Amino acid sequence: MKITILGSGTSCGVPVLGCQCEVCQSEDSHDHRLRCSILVETQHTRILVDIGPDFRQQMLAQPFRRIDAILVTHAHYDHVGGMDDIRPYCQFGDVNVYADRRARQGMLQMLPYCFEANRYPGVPAIGLHEITAGEQFCIGDISVLPVEVMHGKLPILGYRFGGFTYITDMKSIAHEQEELLLGTELLVVNALRFDKPHHSHQLVDDAIEFARRIGAKKTYLTHLCHDIGLHHEVNEHRLPADVKLAYDGQTLTI
């Protein structure tokens, strides 16, 4: 299974408009971060997790072929704002979108024209499916286990695909949900920055502690803001050997 990091940034992206910090002014492409999203692929199946406002730009660098499913973590704009741009992929057939009840309702309110029964010509052809944390299902040859995490006070979904787990926007997780992730081999998880606590996001130390609790062998940190520091300096000097900052365009295999 191949995982592509399409975006590793926060809701503002990096560089942040108008910011003159060293990260936002960096010429290193590793410090340029689009909004969070990944592709999970096998030879036969292709799954997108979240479809933010940078989706079109992200997919220009990827082979153009069918997307079998879109898994939504939650309905905040930086995670679903690119839904309308799925239209070119509808030439392969309807695109199935999977979300929990809260995110499903949020998308119906945010993008009603995408989900109406009698859609006008040109609107993306989307099948919207409700899923529940803890209830496993399959898309093609990929097993998907939704897991509930807390984005502050908002319940959202993370996803486990066999030995790979992807979580973004987590602040905390209940013990019974965390147990579903034990034995994860490869983890991609959010870590906003090193210090200055946030009401709805983990910091780096929180993410590392979480990775240790579930036994992750290799961890990549995502949903990174510009306060995280320069990519190469952080990876070389501030993180354990089994933990690294993810970057846009990075590919991982499991």
Give descriptors for this structure:
single chain; 254 residues; alpha/beta; 7-stranded mixed sheet; 6 helices; 14 strands; 16% helix
Going across the major beta sheet, what is the strand order?
6-5-4-3-2-1-14
Biggest β-sheet description? 7 strands, mixed
Shape: globular
Give me the oligomer status: single chain
What does this entry look like structurally?
With 254 residues, the protein is of the alpha/beta class. 16% of the residues lie in helices and 27% in strands. It is built from six helices and 14 strands. The chain has helices at residues 55-59, 77-80, 101-110, 175-178, 204-214, 231-237, and strands spanning 2-7, 37-41, 46-49, 69-71, 95-99, 126-130, 137-139, 142-151, 154-161, 164-167, 186-190, 218-222, 243-245, 251-253. A seven-stranded mixed sheet has the order 6-5-4-3-2-1-14. A seven-stranded mixed sheet has the order 7-8-9-10-11-12-13. It is globular. The relative contact order is 0.18.
Summarize the structure.
With 254 residues, the chain is α/β, with parallel strands linked by helices. Helix content is 16%, strand content 27%. Strands 6-5-4-3-2-1-14 form a seven-stranded mixed beta sheet.
Topology of helices and strands:
Blueprint: E1 2-7, E2 37-41, E3 46-49, H1 55-59, E4 69-71, H2 77-80, E5 95-99, H3 101-110, E6 126-130, E7 137-139, E8 142-151, E9 154-161, E10 164-167, H4 175-178, E11 186-190, H5 204-214, E12 218-222, H6 231-237, E13 243-245, E14 251-253
Parallel strand pairs: 3-4, 4-5, 5-6, 10-11, 11-12, 12-13
Antiparallel strand pairs: 1-2, 1-14, 2-3, 7-8, 8-9, 9-10
